[in-house]
Amino acid sequence: MPPGVQGRLDALRPAGRYQDDEPVATIDGTQVALTSWWPVRKPRPYPHRLPSTAPLVTGQRVLDAVFPILKGGAASVPGGFGTGKTVLLQQIAKWCDADVIVYVGCGERGNELADVLAELAQLTDPRTGGRLADRTVTVANTSNMPIMAREASIYTGVTVAEYYRDMGYDTVVIADSTSRWAEALREFASRIGALPAEEGYPAGLASALAAFYERAGRVAGPGGREGSVTIVGAVSPPGGDLTEPVTAHTQRFVRTLWTLDRDLANARHYPAVSWSGSYSRDSGTVGSWYAGNGDPGWAARASRMVTMLAEADRLAALADLVGAAALPGPERVALLGGRLLREAFLQQNALSPNDAFCAPTKSAALADLVFDVVDRSGELVAAGRPPGDVENLTSPRDPGTRGDRPCRRGRCPATPRRRTRRAGRAMTPMPPVEYSTIDAIRGPLLVVRGVTGVGWDEFVRIRLDAGPPRHGVVLDVDHDIAIVEVLEGTDGMDRLGTHVAFNGSPFRIPVGDGWLGRVCNGRGEPIDDGPPVLAPHDAPVAGNPLNPTLREPPAEPVLTGVSAIDGLTTLVRGQKLPIFSVAGLPHLELATQIAAQSSAGGEPFSVVVAGMGLPHADAATMRAALEDRARTGDLLMVLNTADDPVVERILTPRIALTVAEHLAFTLGRHVLVVAVDMTSYCEAVREVSSARGEIPARRAYPGYLYSDLASLYERCGRIRGRPGSLTIVPVLTMPAGDITHPVPDLTGYITEGQVVLSAQAQATGGYPPVDPLSSLSRLMRHGAGPGRTRDDHLAVAGQMLASLARARTVQELTELIGTDALNDTDRTYLAFTTTFTRDFATQRPDEQRALPDTLDRAWQVLAALPRRELTMLPTELLDTRLPRSDHA
Asked: Where is region (Disordered) located (predicted)?
């Protein structure tokens, strides 16, 4: 029953089929339908709040065994981009033992939401045997949707959860991410002119966070039915800074914190939950519950694991100074215990059917097994056995090869079916009316007064008393005042001699394959001495958000011919994978090489290059390097140079993406858009925002920078039922190498990975100077592996990255104690780093490597390590590639 409705049943309609909004009963004169409405920002009432006592089983060992959460509790997952927040939350949504899952994609990447929807439709619910989607509600809000939809999305999700809670179900709300929700609050506050508080957020941010997380809890609902709402919210702090406002305030209102660690993520340790930076204030309650439900040793087991991990961290810091070989035997056993816990217990394989979910009984058995090995190792060392021999006997293998996942049982409500109504009306374009009422000229902007019937993003024609005509786009409308961006700039314009005519429709350009082989400026005008581009169709350059349910998850690779990318961070068709660089590094050369060499395995393929704020020399170099591809009719270049109007720079990527969308989704081609330099684009957005007099946010950028970038990046992807794809590789320079700068920080949260160029790698003389441990392709598993590239691709890439992480640790140790104090295994890792750089990562700017050559080179590099160190490669693969007779 709807809240507040009670009393005598006056009438009840007979059994049958009814519309969901049709009354079926009357209670004390109030008609009741099958559905009801509720304001999402207002919590649904309940008679009594109950204490939470039972744990929510997530199937993730580090959470269930060390940092548990109660049903009815609230948890936060802070972590920088690339640390695995989304994967962890999706795993919790798939495997936790709640009755109903409400997954809220709040400002989420469109491709990842499409992936979630596709997987839910295919996965079998181990509780019921039906579809997992049947007990899941997905609130799909992508980063390029309106900010108010993003702000309302988490309230919608928690209200749906409360509805099922009132029916007696245990529900879980997964909010990914609350930082994007807070960005919407900041953007809205900026637009209405509210005075900003810390880092530009509204002063009421803490109250808004408290109101959201306090809706978690276990209650006795109507009729005495007990149910719960558990909230798990991701936080995306800029640069992993846990002191920023959203993270700091969130920690005040949750009882469980799962902090994700950048170093663990770089080492491909999943889940990358930091055991030193995480906590659960409900461990005592959970221990009591397990003691009464068949596992009295849970509390002691959790306490011992925390103690072992803390001691191992302390000894690891000491070993960095004096070397592990200098430690006494018992302390080396303690180091071994920490390593076994990390690699054999805490680490899981989210892609393995055997290890994606782990029941509490299995977790307890694995932990006891680790304890037994550590205890026996201590006994051997105490009996005089050399610690090195004991360490070699206990090298862990791939945790993804463990036993089968047990089934879980439970109940699941039916997913309600809702009807949708469509409404629309024809739009009649306004006749062009010329206005001469120019109120002000501010930088690249015109302020026109006395306008009527003008809409946002409308195309504008500008006539001057002296000089050629110009063009513009409406940025904002307030009553009878319109703010117009002048594409050619306002230099030489006079307020009294300027006349403006609004076109009645958005700025549109012709679209078709006639653009291929051409070079144009940022306004879409040819600069290659060719004729204007004509086509039977045109399209608005602003684009439109794509419904996530119409997206097809990215799949199949785009091969760039660059080993560091194809082998370790594979680019997938429909993905957005940025390149992060620093001034002085060869990012332009790498972007040009990718544009020149990329292919889609023989299928129709085109490249669109959007150059923004490029020096003339760089623009000329890029044109010359891509001349061969342009002659084949596969390339379009949209170039805006550093001295071109700033407003044209804002238009450049939109023109490139509009042409690319038509080539991909109408003509069925696979299209790669290379956009360089996005930092110049963002500087242009900031300049225009300043001219408009807007209240600045972080580092004087406008509060809507996230939404602006999302409106570009989210135009990539694949559409169900259409053969083409649109892939984006944005290139940006990080000012002073600061990855926490708003441009790389916001880009990282919208895109699906990053390729990071490093000054340290550049210093070795290798090209391209890619830092493989800081680089990541979130969608690599969709574009690499069996049936896509080669069966061994994913395993080899994972092992290579894990070995590089270990090698980096050894290098840091060497700087402290020298090579003489290293053991033989550590010395092989030093040699491994050199071999990797020389034989795998380094190649010429004009060298195109086939993928089989790249993977064969990877095997040659891995052969430098002892076989016992290759713990992420399946045994059968090792036996084929590195037989024991040939490899120790």
From this structure: 382-431
